[in-house]
């Protein structure tokens, strides 16, 4: 060892006597010691023994420290293995749940596909039912008159207003002919126009007479029915469902764009005419809008 070599003097000419102990504890005979063993001059046997004991204690201390370190590492490794086992169990649990979820998703997808197939096969029937419901809803409004752009006043008497309208149109009406009369909210809450007035009359004939008279009269104004304020033009029309109102706006815009002269409503059906000599086209759904291109003026 380097430490031992540095301890003894390489220049020493003294050699151990026969029967003395060497550094590694073996007896030294008459033979000369190995060249790597040297002794310091004057070093007694007691010093050698003390050195060996210190070296032994040092080695035992090192071994004890290493053993303690390895034991701690073993404990840490054991703890790490335990944690790793927990992680493995967690991963296995998640994997099992994922497999179950995947199986459940597949089952749901199959059910959704079956439902979609059923819906597709029933689409014509559903469309037919929707059309029938829309028709029934429109027929339920056959006796209704819708008054729009009528100035709204606090404390207004709508019954008096409808009587004044009847007087201007020369269509006498009695209180028993009016089932209900009220304003309805706008579909768009940001709309600043007055709320429309819905009048449910006792018969469709009375309703149709009012609308015909208003068309012959070229409309009616708020001034004519004694409503104070700036004069406003008031419109009387059939009471349409929301779907038919939307369809009516579409037809009116398209008809204006392609040059049709007349678009009106009769008994809940939207009608369009290219000019006075053309036949009227009935529009009952969006599919019927394509009919308007067949009678474009000039074609």
List the helices and strands and how they pair.
Blueprint: H1 2-7, H2 45-139, E1 144-148, H3 158-169, E2 178-184, E3 196-201, H4 204-216, E4 220-221, E5 233-238, H5 242-258, E6 262-266, E7 269-273, E8 281-283
Antiparallel strand pairs: 1-3, 1-5, 2-3, 4-5, 6-7, 7-8
Residue-averaged pLDDT, rounded?
82
Computed Rg: 54 Å
Briefly note the structural class of the backbone: alpha+beta
Overall strand count: 8
Q: Widest sheet: strand order?
A: 2-3-1-5-4
Low-confidence stretches: 1-23, 26-31
In brief:
By secondary structure, the chain is an alpha+beta fold.
Question: Can you walk me through this structure?
Answer:
It is a single chain. The chain is α+β, with helices and mostly antiparallel strands. It folds into three domains: 43-139; 143-239, L1 transposable element, RRM domain (Alpha-Beta Plaits); 240-299. Helix content is 48%, strand content 13%. It is built from five helices and eight strands, in the order ααβαββαββαβββ. The protein has helices at residues 2-7, 45-139, 158-169, 204-216, 242-258; strands at 144-148, 178-184, 196-201, 220-221, 233-238, 262-266, 269-273, 281-283. The strands form two sheets. A five-stranded antiparallel β-sheet has the order 2-3-1-5-4. The protein has a three-stranded antiparallel β-sheet with strand order 6-7-8, covered by helices on one side. The protein is elongated, with a radius of gyration of 54 Å. The model is unreliable at 1-23 and 26-31 (pLDDT under 50).
């Amino acid at each position: 060892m380097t430490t031992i070599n540095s301890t003894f003097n390489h220049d020493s000419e003294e050699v151990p006597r026969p029967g003395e102990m060497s550094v590694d504890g073996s007896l030294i005979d008459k033979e000369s010691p190995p060249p790597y063993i040297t002794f310091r001059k004057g070093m007694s046997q007691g010093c050698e023994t003390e050195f060996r004991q210190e070296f032994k204690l040092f080695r035992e201390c090192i071994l004890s420290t290493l053993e303690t370190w390895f034991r701690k590492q073993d404990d840490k490794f054991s703890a790490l293995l335990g944690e790793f086992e927990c992680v493995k169990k967690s991963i296995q649990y998640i994997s099992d749940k994922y497999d179950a979820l995947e199986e459940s998703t597949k089952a749901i997808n199959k059910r959704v596909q079956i439902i979609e197939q059923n819906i597709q096969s029933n689409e014509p029937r559903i469309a037919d039912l929707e059309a029938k419901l829309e028709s029934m809803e429109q027929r339920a409004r056959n006796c209704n008159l819708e008054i729009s752009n009528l100035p709204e006043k606090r404390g207004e008497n709508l019954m008096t207003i409808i009587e004044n309208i009847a007087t201007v149109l020369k269509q006498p009406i009695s209180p028993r002919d009016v089932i209900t009369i009220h304003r309805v909210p706008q579909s768009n809450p940001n709309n600043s126009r007055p709320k429309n007035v819905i009048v449910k009359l006792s018969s469709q004939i009375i309703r149709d007479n009012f609308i015909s008279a208003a068309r012959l009269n070229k409309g009616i104004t708020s001034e004519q029915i004694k409503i104070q304020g700036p004069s406003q033009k008031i419109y009387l029309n059939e009471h349409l469902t929301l779907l038919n109102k939307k369809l009516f706006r579409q037809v009116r815009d398209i008809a204006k764009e392609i040059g049709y002269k007349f678009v009106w409503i009769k008994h809940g059906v939207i009608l369009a005419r290219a000019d006075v000599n053309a036949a009227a086209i009935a529009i009952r759904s969006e599919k019927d809008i394509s009919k308007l291109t067949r009678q474009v003026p000039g074609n």
